[in-house]
Amino acid sequence: MSEHAQFSPSSFHRLQGCSRSWLLEQTIEPLATSIHSAFGTAAHNVAANALVTGLDAEHFIDTKQQVEGFDFVVDKEMAAFIQIYLDAIRTEAGTKGELHVECRVDFSKTLGVEQSAFGTADAIIFNPNRLSISDLKFGKGVLVHAKDNSQLALYALGALEKFGRDGIEEIAMTIHQPRRNHISQWVASIDEIDAFAIEAKVAVEKALRPDASLTPGKHCQFCNAKPNCPAVNSQSSSGFAVLSNPFSKES
């Protein structure tokens, strides 16, 4: 079983929206992997293998992928969507870029926490004066936008903590959703990312307080603690509806 971070990039938006959610989720087992999530992981595995080996996605057609008890076979359609992502990453890297695939980064020092705080970025690229962070979302659900995306920003902070920031003048953070024909990019300065780091640290400090507040909203959808959450239950009777989450496990 893979290690789970106590503070992870993919769920950080929930902590920002509801401080109490973090404490509640620490006492509950993670949700079981869905077939949609497993399919996305299979696509990530193929994409990573292709980037590391230099092969195109078509090379993996008819190969089998097994993820969390689910079996998938790569077909032409799946390969075509993966290739869109591969082309984008290779274009960004060019001939001089330093590419790191499925790169684990730790941002615990940046957040000032003793708990585990890390994540795995799909692709990190260093070009002269430019750091690029790319995230592949293979689901067909809600469009995810890069601007002010905490998941991407934490990957960026982790990359800067891991590799250093000498010479970096801008950080390009990109969401790739090939099955939705959607690419979203946020280009930020070092100052902007450092400002986010301050906000993130404050959010964590609030989440660690024993009296952290409960705030229901769209971030509740994939919260493991939702079934037992008093704030959600109290709102249900008055017509509260949990909206779609852009960080759906389908992605």
Key attributes of the depicted protein:
single chain; 251 residues; alpha+beta; Lambda Exonuclease, Chain A; five-stranded mixed beta sheet; two-stranded antiparallel ribbon; 7 strands; 37% helix; disordered C terminus
Alpha-beta content class: alpha+beta
SSE order, one letter for each helix or strand: HHHEEHEHEEHEEHH
How many domains, as an integer?
1
Relative strand content:
15-25%
CATH class categorisation:
Alpha Beta
What does the oligomeric state look like here? single chain
Counted by DSSP, the helix tally is 8
- CATH-defined architecture: Alpha-Beta Complex
Q: Gap between N and C termini, in Å?
A: 20 Å
Q: Rough shape?
A: globular
How many β strands by DSSP?
A: 7
Radius of gyration: 19 Å
Low-confidence stretches: 239-251
**Fraction of residues in H or I helices:** 25-40%
Trace the largest sheet across and list its strands. 3-4-5-6-7
